[in-house]
């Protein structure tokens, strides 16, 4: 059973082994906020049990008063019904409006369920998708959860891993929960719904929130610091500018995907991705580049 580790004053993180996904809990006078809820109903129930154990170690009557979803991917959202089953059907679910739009579209047309199976035998099924709880407290730029003696500030710094990423900031604890905008278990995942051209600029909005002492909770992997985020921003920036350069020289999308220089750049920075993992990112950059920055493919 996963347990929570306190990383700052009344801020705990649980690294769930399935998907190596992080769940963060923040406590205040009014109760607890749970950030992200895992990948299926069974995983959510196990998470709920761990949160109940954590709450029992705090003041009597401590309850979860809100949840926050960092973005719309299934491994971060599908456990919410288990939390509502314990703390009420009106338990608020906070998210960015882009996250709500993506989840609404996904619930209408979910496609095949992910194949990943946990060590416990859990896997995401259609029943899990059918039980999806859509966010009911959404914002466009910024929001917050009031815990009485502290605020959890919610910020949409821009598009990156998805269209609806948020970061949750606990200013008095010097903690920033970054979701999958930052990953330390591996390089940031550049999927078919990512925005690699904008992602570096999005992290440019996040970086001023971070001090050298700030604890940054990534979506996957161990907590990191400002230097780590800055390095990851640099790699994303080099990737985006490399693809922009290829497009401006008339290299076709497929030739750019097969580009032989993905392991290094003229700047001497080695990119952390395997070439096979960059196909979606390259195609997304070509889609998002303005016409003026693309030439016709070379013959």
Automatic annotation (TrEMBL):
SMART domains to which the protein is assigned, alphabetical: Lactamase_B
Pfam families cross-referenced by the UniProt entry: Lactamase_B
Taxonomy, superkingdom: Bacteria
Record-annotated Metallo-beta-lactamase domain positions: 20-220
PANTHER family linked to this entry: ACYL-COENZYME A THIOESTERASE MBLAC2, METALLO-BETA-LACTAMASE DOMAIN-CONTAINING
Protein name: MBL fold metallo-hydrolase
């Amino acid at each position: 059973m996963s347990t929570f580790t306190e990383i700052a004053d009344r801020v705990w993180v649980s690294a769930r082994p399935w998907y190596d996904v992080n769940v963060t809990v923040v406590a205040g006078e009014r109760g607890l906020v749970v950030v992200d809820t895992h990948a299926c109903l069974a995983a959510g129930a196990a998470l709920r049990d761990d949160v109940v154990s954590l709450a029992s170690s705090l003041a009597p009557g401590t309850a979860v008063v809100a949840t926050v979803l960092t973005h719309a991917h299934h491994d971060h959202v599908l456990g919410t019904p288990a939390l509502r089953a314990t703390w009420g059907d009106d338990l608020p679910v906070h998210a960015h409006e882009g996250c709500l739009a993506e989840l609404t579209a996904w619930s209408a047309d979910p496609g095949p369920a992910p194949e990943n199976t946990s060590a416990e035998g859990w896997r995401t099924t259609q029943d899990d998708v059918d039980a999806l709880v859509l966010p009911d407290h959404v914002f466009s730029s910024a929001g917050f959860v009031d815990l009485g003696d502290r605020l959890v500030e919610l910020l949409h710094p821009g598009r990156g891993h998805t269209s609806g990423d948020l970061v949750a900031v606990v200013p008095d604890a010097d903690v920033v929960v970054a979701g999958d905008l930052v990953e330390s278990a591996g390089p940031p995942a550049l999927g078919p719904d990512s925005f690699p051209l904008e992602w570096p600029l999005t992290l440019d909005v996040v970086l001023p929130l971070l001090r050298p002492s700030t604890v940054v909770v990534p979506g996957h992997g161990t907590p990191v610091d400002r230097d780590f985020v800055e390095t990851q921003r640099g790699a994303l920036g080099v990737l985006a500018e490399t693809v922009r350069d290829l497009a401006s020289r008339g290299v076709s999308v497929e030739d750019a995907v097969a580009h032989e220089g993905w392991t290094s750049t003229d700047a001497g920075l080695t990119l952390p991705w395997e070439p096979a993992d960059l196909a979606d990112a390259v195609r997304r950059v070509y889609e998002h580049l303005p016409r003026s920055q693309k030439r016709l493919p070379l013959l």
